Amino acid sequence: MGYKVLVVDDEAPVRDLFNDLLVKEKCIVRCVSSGESALNAIDKEDFDVVLLDIKLSGMSGLEALKKIKELKTDLIVIMITGFGYDEDLIAKSREYGCSGYIGKNMPISQIISSFKLFAKTAKEKSKEI
Amino acid sequence: MSPFTQESEKLLFRLIDKANVLFLYFDVDGNVSICNKKVETIAAKNREDILGKNWLNVLYRDSNAAIKQQMFKAVIDDSIKYRRTNTFEGVISDKDNNERFIFWSITPMLTETEGLEGILLVGDDITELKESEASSKKIDEILRSIFSNIKEYALYVVNLDGNITYYGMGSEMMFGWQKNEIVFKHVSLLCTADDAKNKLPFILEQVKRYGQYETEIELIRKDGQSFPVILTVNQFLDAESNLTGYIFMAKDITESKKLEYQIFQTEKLAAIGQLAAGMAHEINNPLFVISGRIEMLLAETRLARKVKEGLDIVKAQADRIRKLVDQLLEFSRKAPPKLETININETIEGVLPLLSYHKFTSATVNIEKDLAGDLSPIKGDLNQLQEVFVNLMLNAYQSMPEGGRLSIKTRNFQNLYAQIMISDTGHGISQQDLKNLFMPFFSTKKNGTGLGLSICYNIIKNHNGSIEVESQVNKGTTFIIRLPFA
């Protein structure tokens, strides 16, 4: 797959799991624990995909999404949530320009395949433009 | 010789003249020889015009009064004939032509040889008394009408022995007993045996002491069904303020109780929903890590068999938790239904084949459909509503392990709602369990999570509909759903 991915989650075990899962998928992974550090990293480095938890301490996930998109419009952001299916949050995230939505309640295999699908679709789309 | 002195004779005449009664004496020919002031006043004549005249002409100026005269004369003739004192209630007109009710006492005056000398009439003006009697009669009528016609309340009166003496129409409607079936029966017939023994005597004692008592209580209908009321009991007093019984007034509060319970239920469920959402999120994070790590480990190729078996078990249990959390999240789902125009009958037809995939019982369950032809479409979320119907039908199946009948009925309810009734002939639900039926985690099934019905409840609520359940143990259960037409 080979994407360069930024994982943003305020819980270390979750970050570590994403790291290991994605490395296994041959991605280059960088992990941060807050929206603030995510913006910092994005400003300094180029990423293909950002995996962003919707519930963060400090700056909220939605706020971080908005700022990331302001900073780098084309960057692919996929939201992660533990809240399950929430219409309000999905609508808001879409409005702010996220490319997909992954629930932590999904089976792992489905999370990985969803991630691949969202990332691939978004990348092709941006190439077309 | 007169028994009076001259002085006392004079006084006697003065007393008679001033007395507040009509005093009239006439001889055997009917000519008046003595009258007092009051007769002058009422007849509106001077004494000169009265004395020597026939008494009938004195008292009845109006020639239309012939019947009244005849009646009075008949009583007087009786007194003359049988030499006895009579009384008579008659009407005469006063000087302003107002009717006056007079209570007459008629005394034949006899000579020493028992010959008739004349007739003494003493009349008491009872007009005011009559009027107040008439007005109290009117009040009586009003009260009677109130008692008989009020339908929202049951009004009944019992005597001091507790026997019902009055029983209005409202009571007939509320209790189902007809008046003739219950009058003179004991009032304890209308309450539970326990209340009749303990609460009723207490209530009556309180009313005796303090005049009134109000309480919430269960009363009993003729068919044995109990229902909640607010019962107000008052003293029933006679004209002399003696306690002669008790007035019972009962207001049926079944509906308001139901509403109160529903509001309570809704609030409780909302609170639980919030809690569930918060919990689910907190559980999802560590669960995600657990599941993810297990899967990564299981993907390793060189695992000892025992380790792999252990991991498989852990994975299965983690999956179980995940499913539970998913249901919790669904229960607290904030998402409003995705509304589309839905034909309820078609939705039900679409759901029925799904049932055949679930083989819960080898016994035969007959499915009876009775779908209304005049059902307008509703606005709803197809997936969510299907989920509700499947859930209820599976519950019905599971309640009939020995087989039975599942009946699905749709109706147009008051042109406002599509009503769906799903009934089974299964083991039923106890009154106690019915109260908690829609509560999350409440289950009567051995392996139930207790989330199915609470999810159904939430879905129907989100559709602005209602879901109710009626059940009788060992007879069956009916779920009644109402969804507003589009």
What are the secondary-structure elements of chain A, in order, as H or E? EHEHEHEHEH
- Individual helix count of chain B: 16
Estimate the strand proportion of chain A: 15-25%
Our measurement of the CA-to-CA distance between the termini of chain B, rounded to an integer number of angstroms, reads 109 Å
Please state how the strands of the largest beta sheet of chain B are arranged side by side: 2-1-5-4-3
CATH level 1 class label of the largest domain in chain B: Alpha Beta
Q: Main β-sheet of chain B: number of strands, strand sense, barrel status?
A: 5 strands, antiparallel
Oligomeric description of these chains: heterodimer
CATH topology of the largest domain in chain B: Heat Shock Protein 90
Instruction: Quickly count the domains of chain A.
Output: 1
Give the name of the CATH architecture of chain A: 3-Layer(aba) Sandwich
Secondary structure: number of strands of chain A: 5
What's the total number of strands of chain B?
17
Based on secondary structure, the structural category of chain A is alpha/beta
- Average residue-wise pLDDT of chain B: 86
Task: Summarize the largest interface: chains and residue counts.
Answer: A-B, 21 and 25 residues
